[in-house]
Design brief:
single chain, 321 residues, alpha/beta, Rossmann fold, Oxidized Rhodanese, domain 1, eight-stranded mixed beta sheet, five-stranded parallel beta sheet, 10 helices, 13 strands, 21% strand
């Protein structure tokens, strides 16, 4: 019996749908908690090519939610281990590994090669870089975020509104899983839903997951959803760039203190705390680059400075995936 017999029985799949899955190329950014259900579900379903992008290594503190890994994997690259699990699950598919972080420099080339992009990274910067890139290239993006006991998953771009259309302002909560904590099953639920939305998209199941938002609260065990097909794109936004994309003509501000970041994001950067933003001179006509660890402090600072800053303001995150 075919390995896909149980799913090809479904009228939404059949032989034609299975062929679609087999010819699809899915890009997965991040090989951590969300990817733990995403990757085996895509591999098991027979998605023909999966590209995994992640430059991080496995740590013991990952294992309660990143269930692709074991204690023996600690110290190994997540992308390598995740790819091996996918290949062991389905030898008929191709799994490609890139062991590096997503950046504004490499995002366009990654996105251009894929049919569907899944944002499984625990990074505000990576999510918005992906959204901006997918919007420009008209590629569908399935993005999820989890914190504590709640999270969301949504289908963006590819003809639907972008992540910025739904979340145009800086997030209220700057914490990540390392700072705020997270339970493994919450990540598993949202990751599994990401995989389902990706399969629905490839199979052409209606209504389309693009323009659909699902929110899940594990505390109450309730979920809710809504469509945002008509959400308008913001007129302007703060772009995320990499430190290597900054020039001598930029005014570069690192918002982190020396204890947090002994080495600044750029050799030409000056340290200014978020409490002392008034010290930044707005009259020099330069592009302003604001740097921090995740990009969130930089985004909030940019919102404060924008009314009085004559030029462009860009954001720099120390790491993006």
């Amino acid at each position: 019996m075919s390995r896909y017999a149980r799913q090809t029985l479904l009228p939404e799949v059949g032989a034609e749908g299975q062929a679609r899955l087999g010819s699809a190329h899915v890009l997965v950014i991040g090989a951590g908690g969300l990817a733990a259900p995403v990757l085996p579900l895509l591999a098991g379903a027979g998605v023909g090519r999966i590209t995994i992008v992640d430059g991080d290594t496995v740590a013991l503190s990952n294992l309660h939610r990143q269930t692709l890994f074991t204690e023996a994997d600690c110290g190994r690259f997540k992308a390598d281990v995740a790819a091996a699990r996918c290949r062991a699950l389905n030898s008929e598919i191709e799994v490609v590994v890139t062991k590096q972080a997503l950046t504004s420099e490499n995002a366009a080339s990654f996105v251009a090669q894929a049919d569907v992009i899944l944002d499984c990274a625990d990074s505000y910067a990576a999510s918005y870089i992906l959204s901006d890139t997918c919007l420009a290239q008209v590629r569908p993006l399935i993005s999820a975020s989890v914190l504590g006991l709640s999270g969301y998953v949504g289908g963006f771009c590819g003809g639907a509104p972008s992540l910025r259309a739904l979340f145009p302002d800086a997030p209220d909560n700057g914490a990540n899983c390392a700072a705020a904590g997270v339970l493994g099953p919450v990540v598993g639920v949202l990751g599994a839903m990401q995989a389902q939305m990706a399969l629905n998209l490839i199979l052409g199941v209606e209504p389309s997951p693009l323009g659909q938002m699902l929110q899940y609260d594990a505390h109450t065990l309730r979920s809710s959803g809504f469509r945002f097909d008509d959400a308008p794109e913001p007129n302007s936004c703060f772009r995320f760039l990499s430190p290597s994309q900054l020039t001598k003509y930029d005014q570069i501000i690192d918002l982190r203190d020396a204890d947090e970041a002994p080495t600044m994001a750029h050799p030409d950067a000056a340290r200014v705390s978020p409490e002392n933003l008034h010290d930044i001179d707005p009259n020099n006509g330069k592009r302003l680059a604001l740097c921090c660890a995740t990009g969130l402090r930089a985004w909030r600072a940019a919102e404060q400075l924008q009314p009085n800053w004559p030029g462009e303001i860009i954001l720099v995150a120390a790491s993006t995936s």
